[in-house]
Amino acid sequence: VQLVESGGGSVQAGGSLRLSCAVSGLLAYRYEEYCMAWFRQAPGKEREWVATINRDGTTVNVESVKGRFTISRDNGKNTLYLQMNSLKSEDTAMYYCARDPACTARFIYGGQGTRVTVSS
Question: CA 78 → CA 44, 64, 74, 81, 92, distances in Å?
């Protein structure tokens, strides 16, 4: 299974970006059966969970991004998204998507990530 993140870039504080994660090479599971998530890793820090979207479309976010970030999925395109609004400098990080076939919060990474840089 391949996960390819895209959509990162450099923006000023207050700006917006939309990240995408294209999933391919699925074998045992269809994309809509996965729980999917976004994680991020800021320079010098550990990887941090950002948001999860479940099979039924319900979502949950880390407190620091509530009201600003929205995770969504397009099952027809096998793609995961993260709409990021009102970006802050502390959102600067590499962003990674991850899959969880069993929806047990055991996520599997696969992509190279996409870099988001927010300047104040």
Answer: 32, 27, 6, 10, 26
Residues in the chain: 120
Please tell me the distance from the alpha carbon of residue 100 to that of residue 36, in angstroms, as a whole number: 6
Closest residue by Cα to residue 37 from 117, 93, 110, 115: 110
Q: Which of these, 20, 22, 5, 19, lies nearest to 84 by C-alpha position?
A: 19
pLDDT, tens digit, 9 for 90 and up, residues 48-93: 999 999 999 999 999 999 999 999 999 999 999 999 999 999 999 9
User: Kind and range of the H or E element at 61?
Assistant: strand 59-61
Question: CA-CA distance, 86 to 33, in Å (whole number)?
Answer: 31
